[in-house]
Amino acid sequence: MESAVLRNASVFDDSYLPTDIPHREAEATDIAHEMKMFAKGYPARVIIYGPPGTGKTTVMKHVASSFQSYSTKLVYSNSLLTNTRLGLFSLICDQLGIMMPRRGISSDELISRLRESAKRILVIIDEADSLKEKDLLYALAKSKETMGIEIGFIAITNVPSFLAMADARLPALITKRMEFKPYSPAQVRDILFERARLGLVPGAFDENTIGKIAGFASRHMGNVRLAIYLLMLSAKHADSADRPKITLEDVEKAKDGLMAGLLEKASAKLNEAEKKVLEAVESLSFPTSAEVEERLAPGMSPRTARLYLKGLLDREYLLSEDIHVSGGGRKRVYRVAYKL
Ligand SMILES: Nc1ncnc2c1ncn2[C@@H]1O[C@H](COP(=O)(O)OP(=O)(O)OP(=O)(O)O)[C@@H](O)[C@H]1O
Ligand SMILES: [Mg+2]
User: Fold this and answer.
1) Which residue range(s) make up the domain with 63?
2) pLDDT on residue 127
3) Nearest to residue 82, comparing CAs of 134, 143, 152, 130?
4) 270 CB burial (10 A radius; 0-12, 13-18, 19+)
5) Is it the case that residue 164 has pLDDT exceeding 90?
6) Whose CB has fewer CB within 10 Å in the chain, the N or C terminal residue?
């Protein structure tokens, strides 16, 4: 049966590449500039940091798709898939069209083939925190001296302390650091509206529903991936009730579903009390430990709540961050870590 809500489901896929990427114009210009300068002969050893779902991969792919150069080859690598030096060099050879013998090949041999190709190579290393070899970026930074071929990199990460954890010699060699700041609620709303226009039947959504979803994403550091996913779940919820329009209740139910999914995945590993703590964090907006404790009282003692908070944080069900409070000072707040 045809859906009265959904027009094009593919725009909700994570692999969907939007043609427009609003609110990231400055970042796209900066990245394009780095690529152009590399093609002109300058080094590029760039680190991009930003929380999940803030458009890093999307912007990068967009800029890369319009990059053109005779001298320079761009290579995109995701470290979740390619996380060793040999893996990365094989990928580069592959994308340069260099044939590889079936018997396998050593990294030295790979490098000499790369050198013959006489191209400058700029690798985009996405999810760089998943690299297995800690000195890989350092090796690339030194590639001109050690391999006779310059390999620039743009490494993308959502670990703030990425450089501090990397090879100690690396930070001094970085030519540029960029940060993708979390989207504001208004920016998330803009992006969601556009996606809704593309994917949903006109009239199936309005200011209120989109605003509510945007508010949810804002509590998760402007994670647009989460927002888009919740929009799709909300549409699905309305659809399954045979309603042509998403209601606030659909959004609420979809959000519960998201939480339930997380709890279900975790159910074997979390006890009832831990689940309660997770739910309390979700129901509040960036709560402090004290606020979570208050929500759980009197059923749970503050001390127990604190212990569970810490345990959930250590096991990455929760994330915490220190934020500035008006009038100076800082406070530590918590949010649920949805792994999408
Ligand atoms: N400015 C934007 N305009 C339109 N869509 C966006 C924008 N920013 C992000 N998105 C969408 O949000 C989703 C997540 O974006 P993306 O994958 O680029 O995030 P990321 O920063 O790479 O996250 P992670 O750190 O988890 O890899 C994608 O579906 C993307 O299409
Ligand atoms: Mg990404």
Assistant:
1) 25-179
2) 93
3) 130
4) buried
5) no
6) N
- State if residue 236 touches ligand 1 by the CB under 6 angstroms criterion: no
pTM: 0.87
Pocket perturbation via mutation, ligand 1, pick of 58, 130, 223 by most ligand atoms within 8 A of CB: 58
Q: Is ligand 1 within 6 A of the CB of residue 197?
A: no
**Where residue 278 sits, what CATH number does that domain have?**
1.10.10.10
Q: Select from 192, 214, 247 the last residue of a domain.
A: 247
Indicate if ligand 1 lies below 6 Å from the C-beta of 155. Answer: no
For residue 155, what is the domain's CATH number?
3.40.50.300
What's the pLDDT band for 14 if we cut at 50, 70, 90?
A: confident
Do 32 and 164 lie in one domain? The reply is yes
Q: Residue 124 Cα, ligand 1 centroid: separation in angstroms?
A: 16
CA of 53 to the centre of ligand 2 (A): 7
Residues 99, 135 within the same domain: yes
| 213 assigned to some structural domain | yes
> H helices of the chain, where?
25-39, 56-65, 85-95, 107-117, 136-141, 143-147, 162-165, 185-199, 207-218, 224-240, 248-266, 272-283, 289-296, 302-314
32 Cα–ligand 2 center, Å: 18
* Rounded distance from Cα 159 to ligand 2 centre (Å): 12
Note the pLDDT tens digit of each residue in 110-163. 888 888 887 899 999 999 988 988 899 999 999 999 989 999 999 999 888 888
76 & 168 share domain: yes
Task: Please identify, among 136, 161, 179, the residue that sits at the C-terminal boundary of a domain.
Answer: 179
